[in-house]
Design goal:
It is a single chain. The chain has 108 residues and is α+β, with helices and mostly antiparallel strands. Strand 1 and strand 2 form a beta hairpin. Helix 1 packs antiparallel against helix 3.
């Protein structure tokens, strides 16, 4: 079966991927503007400096989610119309899981 997507279909799918990324990642992303540009870079525009700090602390998870969910090859964080940080999303491997999640599960 062959699917023929028009321009509006592709824009809708892109927006849905971005919204899924926003909802599955950090809560602070709800306060940010996200945009996937023609170079496949997901730009996150932050309204407050504390959001930038939080995103930088969680960069490994953020890059992984951007690559897996959105398909972005780069991630860029912006504040006050300046690029603060950029990263190749595939440079980070799958984020390390906490030791608690690796412990065997015991069921009663």
């Amino acid at each position: 079966m062959f699917l023929d997507f028009n321009h509006n279909d592709l824009l809708t799918l892109e927006q849905q991927r971005i919204e899924r990324f926003r909802s599955s990642s950090l809560r602070s992303l709800l306060l940010c503007f996200l945009h996937l540009n023609q170079n496949n870079t997901l730009a996150i525009h932050c309204a407050e400096p504390w959001i930038v700090d939080q995103l930088l602390q969680d960069m490994e998870q953020l890059c992984w989610d951007a690559w897996v969910i959105v398909g972005a090859s780069r991630l860029s964080i912006h504040y006050a119309q300046e690029e603060i940080y950029t990263a190749n999303t595939q440079e980070f491997g799958e984020p390390m899981r906490s030791q608690d999640s690796l412990a065997p599960q015991h069921y009663l």
